[in-house]
Amino acid sequence: xxxxxxxxxxxxxxxxQPGVGNPxxxxxxxxxxxxxxxxxxLEKNSFDDPETREQIREALRLNWKLWTIFQAELGVExxxxxxxxxxxxxxxxxxxIDKHTVDxxxxxxxxxxxxxxxxxxxxxxxxxATIE
Length: 132
Known about the structure:
Four Helix Bundle (Hemerythrin (Met), subunit A), 0% strand, globular
């Protein structure tokens, strides 16, 4: 099964956009959509084509922006019920995503992109599990 198929197969029902009022679902949806955009260029089996490389860079930048939003939200101390240890773990994951994305932008490989896809999909599934 291809990475695109795996990203599309996640537990989130297909919609063009999530509804209002469920931020956890919205976050999961955004992670899966980003995973799909990261997976699409992998289907071409070659990163030599300039168009494919630009598509990869755009998908990486979009994913990076998403994770920057998560990082900004996690960095604000608030009473959201998120345990301190989980907040710390998520901030560490955001830091990893930052570094991995910079490395992937400068030297993209299918393995590097797949790592980001897997993280997004795993986190999306975990978020969905909390609202079911």
